[in-house]
Amino acid sequence: MKQFADLSEHEILALAISNEDEDSRIYREFARGLAEQFPASAAVLSGMADEENRHRDLLLDLFRTRFGDHLPLIRRQDVKGFISRKPLWLIRPLQVDAVRDYAASMESDASRFYHKAAEASRDPSVRALLLKLAAEEDRHEALADRLTEKYLTPAARDREAESARRAFVLQYVQPGLVGLMDGSVSTLAPLFAAAFATHRPFETFLVGLAASVGAGISMGFAEALSDDGTLSGRGSPWIRGLVCGLMTTLGGLGHTLPYLIPDFMVATIVAVIVVAVELALISWIRHRFMDTPWLQATFQIAVGGTLVFLAGILIGSA
After folding, report:
1. Distance between CA 9 and CA 3 in Å, rounded?
2. C-beta separation of 260 from 202 below 8 A
3. What residue spans define the domains of the chain?
């Protein structure tokens, strides 16, 4: 890898051209990825891509005037300590706020590069253009504001806010709710069956722990393998699987942990209280994020939880 200080003037210009071209392609990729759910933000990013293309053309014209038509192949990764970009696939599924932060870092990095390149340039015309581009990169925030005012109207902002809410529900709330419901309800029967069959708190705790962890692993893999998110827009399957698995485990552990209390009756009373809290929390989440009427959500969860709870007691007492 070359040191930046060892680059010749025509290599610095070639690197700047390559950098502008790649930044433009990044903006285009962001715009394409957000176009369906966030069309107004995609339009802003397309405008930023056009601006990067204009910078590239200015640099290319200057390069041809000074050094001819042959553009040496020099890339970011060829220069030690040069601008490093996180691969785009690492920030998928695209979120508007993450894209805006990424774009802001792009402009900051580009401005720093142009200032550094201008210091290394001995040609007045080259130095003047590099400083001009540095100033324009510094002003890109204002350009983004102008494009935002043009495309992100109040109606567009409302639509994008609703799209962001829907994506959040699909990617996090829904798998988390499924996991919490499964962990809180499905582990009731084995836990209370073991409790009333043995009347031994610690043995009951081990049964609940095994059921919770086992259910978490099972639900996590089931969610991750059920849908890759490409068509449904539900996001990364592994993130959904992780959320679902963790919430399943937590849902089971909530009423399992009280059986660390040595006294069986006290542990059981606390566990029943925890179950009531868990069912109320599930009802609230369904009402808050899934638009389920409060009474309907409470009734459905209470009936299901009560039936599983009674099944566990009856089996354990048999």
Report:
1. 13
2. yes
3. 4-152, 164-317
- Structure tokens, 111: 């401005």
For the segment 178-211, what is each residue's pLDDT rounded down to a tens digit? 888 888 887 888 888 888 888 899 998 999 899 8
Instruction: Check residue 270 and give its pLDDT.
Output: 92
223-255: b (≥16 Cβ within 10 Å) or e: bbeebebeeeebbebebbbbbbbbbbbbbbbbb
| Non-local CB neighbours of 274 within 8 Å, separated by 6+ positions | 254, 255, 257, 258
pTM: 0.51
CATH number belonging to the domain at 4-152, selected among 1.10.287.130, 1.10.530.10, 1.20.1260.10, 3.40.50.11930: 1.20.1260.10
Q: CA-to-CA distance for 252 and 243, rounded, in angstroms?
A: 14
End-to-end CA distance of the chain: 75
Backbone angles phi, psi at 228, to 5 degrees: -85, 0
Of 121, 150, 149, nearest in space to 133 by CA: 121
